[in-house]
Queue: 3 jobs
Job 1
Amino acid sequence: MPYNQQSITSIRRWSPKTFSFKATRPEGFRFKNGQFVTLGLRCGGKLVPRAYSIVSDPDEPDLEFLSIHVPDGSLTSELAQASVGDTIWINSKVTGSLTLEHVQAGRNLYLLATGTGIAPFISLIRGEEIFERFETVILVHSVRTAPELSYREELEARAGGRLRYVPTVTREPHDITGRGADLFRSGELSRMLELPDPDPELDRVMLCGNPQMNKEMTTHLKEQGWTMTNYKGVGNFTVEQAFVTTQCED
C-alpha cells in the first residue's frame, strides 16, 4: 500500500500521556467521518506504521490525530518527540467500522469511548449527518485523570440540544466518576440525562475503547438483545475491532 510523505503542522499536549497533532493532507485523500488510516515514521531507516482514527471532518484541510505516549513504544515514543515540520508517512487507504453506515438510523446514538478511543467520535460530531440521522447523540468519554479529557472545551461548547457530553474520570475526584460502560449498563446514564433507557429497537451504540470495555459492552449488548454489525448485515451497535488509536501499541 502506498504511503505519502507529509509534514506535521501542529501539536497539542493534553496531558503527560496524551497529545494530538495535525499533518498535511495528501492530494486526493478522501475519507468518511469515523474512519482510520495507517501512518508512521521512519525509525532507523525502517517505516514503523500504526493505525490511527482520523479526528478531522472530511471538509478540513489538514488531517488530525490523537495519540497516547506509550513508554518505549516503537512509534509513539518517536511521535511524542516530533516537532512541527517533521515528516510523517500516511497511507492512502482508509477503513473502519465506526462510520454512520455501520449502524441503522434510530432515535438516540450512544458513543462510548475510553482514552484516545474518542478520536473517531470527534470526527463524527464535527460532521452534520450524525445529527440528521439521530434525535440525540450521547458521547461518553471515560479516562483515568481529568487532563486526559481531550477536546473537552470543544465538546462542552458543542453540547446542549442534540449533543449530550458526559466526561467521566476513574482515578481521581471529578464531577462524574466511574466507567462510562458501567453507567450505561446500570441505567445511571439514562437517569442522569433524563433519557429513556436504551432500547435496541430504537437506539444505537458505537464502541471505541480498551479491549476490556469493548468486550464487556459487546457481551452485555448481545445479552440484552442487541445485534452487532458484521458481514451478515448492519445492526444496532458497532465496535471498532481494530482498536485503532494505539492504546494497545507494543
Note: Helices lie at 76-79, 119-126, 129-133, 152-158, 180-186, 188-193, 211-223.
Job 2
Amino acid sequence: MHQFIVNLMETDTQIANLLETMEPITLEQMSEIRLMNRTDTKFVTSKHKLMQLLQLAQGKYYAQQIGDSKVANYMTTYWDTDNHHFYLEHHNRRSPRQKVRVRTYMDSNLTFLEVKTKNNHGRTKKKRVEVPCQEITGANGNEEFLLGQVHRGLADIHPTVRNQFQRITLVNHGKTERLTIDYNVHFHNMETQRDADTGALVIIELKRDGNVFSPILGMLRQLRIQPSGFSKYCIGSVMTNSRLKQNFFKSRLVTLGKLSGTNMRNQ
C-alpha cells in the first residue's frame, strides 16, 4: 500500500509538470466562454491515461490557472432525506432526478448551495445561491430556494456524504468546449463515519457547444477512453454505506476498481 501511495504522488508530480507546459487561461477569460447549447459527456479513466491525454493536448488547449496553480481544490457536501430519496432516484434510474449539494471552491473561498436537475433528455441544469460556509441554515433565502427547487426544506434533509477532490480545467483554443478533469477524490460519510478514496481514478467531463468539432474526442478515442457515467454522490455513498440499495452499482464498482488500482467495493 505504501508503494502504491508513493507511485500516485509521483504521478501527480508528472501531471503537474505537464500542466506547466500548457498556456494558462484565467477565470476572467473563462467567463467569456458561454456554451449556449451545451452538451455534457463523462469519461472515466486512470492517471496513467490522463498523462497521455495531457501530452496529446499540448498546443491545442489552455489550462485554467488560479493564482499560481493550474490544479484547483474542491469540497462538496451532499444532502439527502432520511430515506435517501435523491440517491435512490439515481439508483433506480428515474428522470427527472435531482441532487442537493454545498460546494466550496477552496482556492477562491467561495461556497454555493446548489441543486442539480437532470431531465428526461439527459440534460443537466444547475441552480445555485452563494452561502457563507458549508454549514447552511435557513437564513438569506436558503429555505425558500430549496422549497422552490426540490419542494423540501432544511428540516427534511441532512448532510450525508462529503468529498474533496482536485480539478484541472482545459479549454480548447477555439473556446467552444471546456474539459473538467477530477482526481484524488476522497469521501467521508457523515452518517456512517466511513472514509474511502478512488485511488488512480480520473473523471473527465466534456462540456461543448452543441455538436461542434471537438479536438479532445479524437484523443480520447485514440487512448480508448470510452464515455461512462459517474456520480460522485452515488459512488461515494455506495463505497461508504453498505446499508444502501446498490444492485445497480455493483458491477460498476468492479470496473472502476480495475481503473483505480483499488478495491472500491470494500474499503
Note: The chain has a mean pLDDT of 91.
Job 3
Amino acid sequence: MKRLSLLLTVFCFALLADSVASAAAPLNIIPEALHIVRAEFGLFNASGFVPSNRVPLVEGQTYGWRIVVKTNKAKVRWREEFTLPVAPVTWGDAEVKGMSSVSENRRVSVMEREETPVDGVMVNSWAVAAGDPVGHHVMRVLIDNRYEYIFQFDVQSAPQHTKKVLQ
C-alpha cells in the first residue's frame, strides 16, 4: 500500500509539473507590429506623388498625405483632422461620402478609417474645388492611435502669367 501511495504521489507531481510547464511555455503568437517607414505630404499628378508644402489653387489639383508602413496587421486605423483657415463654400463629396464630422464653425473635418495598406502605403487625398480658401492649412494624422503626423501647407492662388508690355 505504501508503494502504491508513493507511486501515486510521484505520478500526481509529474502531472502537475507538466501542466505548469505547459502553461508557462510561450505561445507561438507574433505580436502585431506597425512601423512607420515614411510620412509625407504633397501633390498628386499624372507623374505620381510630388512632395510639397504648397498647393496651387487650381480646381481639380489633388493633394494629400501618404504614409508608408511596415506591418503584419491586416488593417491599420487612421484618423485625419483637417483644419482650414476659414470655412469653405462646401466640403463637397466628402460631406456625403465619409467625413466623420465637421466642426460647428465648418473649418475642421474629421475622418476615421481602417484600411489595408496597399504595398505598405496608406493615402488620403483631397481635390481643390471652387470656393476653397487660400492660406495656411493643417492636417493632423494619427496612425494606429500611436503615431502622430502634422502636415502644414499653404494653398496659394495660381501665379498669373503676365505679359511684359514693351514701350
Note: The chain has a mean pLDDT of 81.
